[in-house]
Amino acid sequence: MSGEESTASGAVAGTAAGPLAGVAAQPGVPKPDAILVADGVTRSFGGLRAVDVAHLEVQRGAITALIGPNGAGKTTLFNLLTGFDRPDSGEWSFDGRSLAGRRAHQVARSGMVRTFQLTKALSRMTVLDNMRLGAMGQAGESFWRGLIPPLWAGQEKENTARAMDLLRRFKLDAKCHEYAGSLSGGQRKLLEMARALMAQPTMVMLDEPMAGVNPALTQSLLGHVKELREEGMTVLFVEHDMDMVHDISDWVVVMGQGRVIAEGTPDSVMADPEVIDAYLGKHHDDVATDSSEGDS
Ligand SMILES: Nc1ncnc2c1ncn2[C@@H]1O[C@H](COP(=O)(O)OP(=O)(O)O)[C@@H](O)[C@H]1O
Ligand SMILES: [Mg+2]
């Protein structure tokens, strides 16, 4: 590590602080210290090109928000980059290592861990057991069922201690012996984030971590995300609430119809007419007064 802890957390409205200062607000723009670099990543479902990302770089140690209307391809991009789905084409590297073709647990082992838009806490396991699973990275439930006993041997004490530390931090320690299925939606989101941290990642990708979380928990979730950055982690998260995006992001990437259509500081992106358009969607046909006729 560089010892220099100058994260971009001092970001002032309008200008990117720290390492992202001076980076142009352009789709695909290079970053001074990119931890994740993707090229030509595409994925179609039938005739629909869900993801078509020509070039994308994510800055190390920063919080980057990935925004865009429903169906823009955000979750599919997460799935591709983390090995939960296969692209039709494309290359990407994480921390200098190519990850294309890697499976989810290999991706997790390399330090990039994600959470899901729909939480995947295993509801008929206790909160603590969910955490212990997180220590081994990510894979499907059936994969774990076969592997848990041998992998736990020897490491159980350490993992349990680490799990309890994280559960305390996320205020879930009192629930450690309850089934994950008994938690509220918001608590499950917290559990998922805590579980992701069990793998000791360098980068976490959070797919709508605040969705369905009540306002009281939202604040603590936001605080946790900021803490991750303070600890030197890289965060890429999907969020619809622009106030939250504005509050915690150093950089914002906007997707529309599978492509990266804009990126920049929260302020520059939110003032971008193309971004506003993407969110307004087709409604602009109804309200536009200055556009030329019928080209879309
Ligand atoms: N497994 C799938 N099969 C068919 N279409 C899919 C599948 N996953 C996603 N899509 C489609 O791909 C597009 C992008 O979806 P998604 O990545 O979930 O968008 P977002 O997360 O930005 O809302 C949508 O049109 C969606 O319906
Ligand atoms: Mg999604």
From TrEMBL:
Residues 36-282 form the ABC transporter domain. GO terms for molecular function: ATP binding; ATP hydrolysis activity. Gene3D superfamilies: P-loop containing nucleotide triphosphate hydrolases (3.40.50.300). This is Amino acid/amide ABC transporter ATP-binding protein 1, HAAT family (TC 3.A.1.4.-). Keywords: ATP-binding, Nucleotide-binding, Transport. The keyword Protein biosynthesis does not apply. It holds the Pfam family ABC_tran. GO terms for cellular component: plasma membrane. It comes from Stackebrandtia albiflava. PANTHER family: CONSERVED COMPONENT OF ABC TRANSPORTER FOR NATURAL AMINO ACIDS (PTHR45772:SF9), CONSERVED COMPONENT OF ABC TRANSPORTER FOR NATURAL AMINO ACIDS-RELATED (PTHR45772). SMART domains: AAA. InterPro entries: AAA+_ATPase, ABC_AA/LPS_Transport, ABC_transporter-like_ATP-bd, ABC_transporter-like_CS, BCA_ABC_TP_C, P-loop_NTPase. The lineage of its organism: Bacteria, Bacillati, Actinomycetota, Actinomycetes, Glycomycetales.
